[in-house]
Amino acid sequence: MKRYIATILCLLAFTAAYAGDEAVYEKLHTSYTLAADGSQQYRRVMDLKLQTHSSFNNLFGETFVVYDPEYQTLTINEAYTTQADGTVVPLPDNAVNESLPHAAADAPAYNRLLEAVITHTGLEIGATIHLDYTLTTKAGLYPALEVCETLTEPAAAVKERRIEITVPAGTELRYDPAMKPSRTGDTYTWQFRNLAAYYDEGKMPQNGEGRPILCATTFTSTADALSRIASTERDIVRIPGLARDSKAETVKAYLNYITQNLGSCGVTPYMAGYRSRTATEVLSSAYGTDLEKCRLAARTLAAEGIDAELVAVYPAFHAVKMLRDIKNFAVRVTIDGKDEYYTSIGSALSRARSDRDEVYSVTSGEKIGFAPCPNSYRAETRITVKGTEATVTADIETESNGTTSKTDKAPAVSVSDCSGYRLVKLPAIGLAESWAPNMGTERRQYFEIPYVCDDEVHFTVETDGRILTPSRELKISNSVGEVTLRVEVEGGKATVTRNVKINKSIIPPAEWKSARAILTALTDRAYNELIVK
Questions:
Q1: What is the pLDDT of residues 398-435, one digit of tens each?
Q2: pTM of the prediction?
Q3: Could you tell me the fold of the domain covering 227-368?
Q4: I need a surface site. Which of 82, 102, 316, 356 has the fewest CB within 10 A?
Q5: Per-position DSSP letters for 8-76, written without gaps between them
Q6: Which secondary-structure segment (H or E) carries 263?
Q7: Maximum CA pair distance of the chain?
Q8: Domain locations in the chain?
Q9: Distance from C-alpha of 214 to C-alpha of 174, rounded to nearest angstrom
């Protein structure tokens, strides 16, 4: 928690008008109001000053608002552009157009959704877009008030940001205690100034770590939130011909069927008001949302006598967990006391992310002990070089995602003739060796390594000549991990060692140089190539 508080403080320290930003929000205010009858109102007011051609040609020329017209009404309160010379250009009547959201394409059950596309006019460098709109939601669409806002904005700094939440008298509002608001009666206000722009620098954290986020809700607990989507459906749903002699094979057959025969719909639970179709409806329509497909898998497997349930995956760093910040869903399958987790596309849920993801049972609302697993790679590779031919044998053991595997499949070794000398290129193997970043020495955003790991790679190379590469050693140890690279040469024989340990997966900008030093060391040709005469 302290790490993310420090991140917010660092962001506040930046000057909003960073010279390289595409645009600057002079003002960005959002407000949420929950009425006693369950209806809600969301209002967004912004003044966005454009600073580059790209800002209005590619980034901020349009505003998109997805809503359900059955329950929601969109009102444009004010919309105009103030040009650099002060000329005010009102939003023309034909500048607001409605279309089907891309997420609902090929999904007839969700074709009721609309996306309002607001096209801003009179744009130029130095112009300021002013937009003020309200989205009013009737009671019955959302079971509670949920706020999940990332404070930093892509490509645009924010000079003044305010988030205001008003709830009925006596209603508890849960929020991250690290982000205390000011309070007047039942209105909570968060005020921020001079927030730096966010830029995707590659290898960004999947869950958004490092970007300050405000999560607040009137759900009394995570269990309360999940209970609103826990299904009471009890229909027996089977797919003929998929049952197998063993439970494991039956699970595999059902997951393959759902993956290969059902399309995926990008409509999020929030867009659908957390309503989903029954397993029978999803199966007959041959498509489904992430929630629907995982629920179908759980229902069909349960009908075959297999212990299966729907689970929700959350970013671990969110202090308040509700419905709106669910990362994705999965199905937990228990066979002979062993749990396995599968996503809506049939792949196993990665235990390697257990330091960043948390799993909750949708039925009970309880957090599931998704224990971390070690990730290690052990390789003993023997190489014999004769002429420009290399014979390779290997013993490799990998432990990843809770499974240990062994193989004797040898990696390829390249030997090339270079004007009377031979160049032996050792292969890049191990878990960490594929993560080397092709990036600069400076970084403003957090960097994510796929998972912590422990690699030990050894090559024994025997040649029919004399190895000219000198013996050498490189050791690096810092807050991110440690690496030892070693080449030991004696005549025509060499032993090459590459050992690396990575002990953290989320790297803040302050530790970027440490992570980069370890990962780029693994690509150093001085430890990956041998010159033979």
A1: 988 778 899 999 999 999 999 889 999 999 998 898 88
A2: 0.90
A3: C8orf32 fold (3.10.620)
A4: 102
A5: HHHHHHS-SS-TT-SEEEEEEEEEEEE-TTS-EEEEEEEEEEE-SHHIIIIISSEEEEEE-TTTEEEEE
A6: strand 263-264
A7: 86
A8: 2-220, 227-368, 376-532
A9: 11
